[in-house]
């Protein structure tokens, strides 16, 4: 089973959210349907970026690494196409 680090974006809030999950489709559905306390203020979350990991621990470690930076610029550098 794969685990994913993901970054979603809400245009109405102009905000990014970083998380991890084994099921991206279900997790995005829950974010858009008040299934998450942190993202319930918006219903327009869209998937912007993913990384795949072999273990949950690796995905969570990467999630914490990104969140620890507390940098919108860093998140935008990850999701923007290179070139």
Q: What can be said about this structure in brief?
A:
The protein has 83 residues and is an alpha+beta fold.
Q: Which short descriptors sum up this protein?
A:
3-stranded antiparallel sheet, globular, 37% helix, alpha+beta, 3 strands
How would you characterize this protein structure?
This protein has a single domain (3-79), classed as GIY-YIG endonuclease (3-Layer(aba) Sandwich), CATH 3.40.1440.10. 37% of the residues lie in helices and 29% in strands. It has helices spanning 24-32, 56-69, 72-79, and strands at residues 3-10, 15-21, 45-53. It has a three-stranded antiparallel sheet, with helices on both faces. It contains three helices and three strands. With 83 residues, it is an alpha+beta fold. Strand 1 and strand 2 form a beta hairpin. The termini are far apart.
Q: Considering DSSP H and I runs of 4 or more, what fraction of the residues is helical?
A: 25-40%
User: What is the percentage of strand-forming residues?
Assistant: 25-35%
The biggest beta sheet, please?
3 strands, antiparallel
Distance between the termini: 32 Å
CATH architecture: 3-Layer(aba) Sandwich
Look at the structure and give the CATH class: Alpha Beta
Order of helices and strands: EEHEHH
Helix/strand-derived class? alpha+beta
CATH topology: GIY-YIG endonuclease
Low-confidence runs: none
How many DSSP H or I helices? 3
* Total number of domains: 1
Can you list the strand order of the major beta sheet?
A: 2-1-3
- Total number of strands: 3
What is the CATH homology-level superfamily?
GIY-YIG endonuclease
> Could you say which overall geometry the principal axes of the C-alpha atoms support?
globular
- Overall average residue pLDDT: 95
């Amino acid at each position: 089973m794969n685990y994913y680090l993901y970054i979603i974006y809400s245009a109405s809030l102009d905000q990014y959210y970083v998380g991890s999950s084994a099921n991206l489709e279900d997790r995005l559905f829950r974010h858009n349907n008040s299934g998450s306390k942190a993202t319930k203020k918006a219903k327009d979350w869209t998937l912007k970026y993913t990384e795949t990991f072999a273990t949950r621990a690796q995905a969570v470690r990467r999630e914490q690494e990104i969140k620890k930076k507390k940098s919108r610029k860093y998140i935008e550098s990850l999701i923007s196409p290179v070139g």
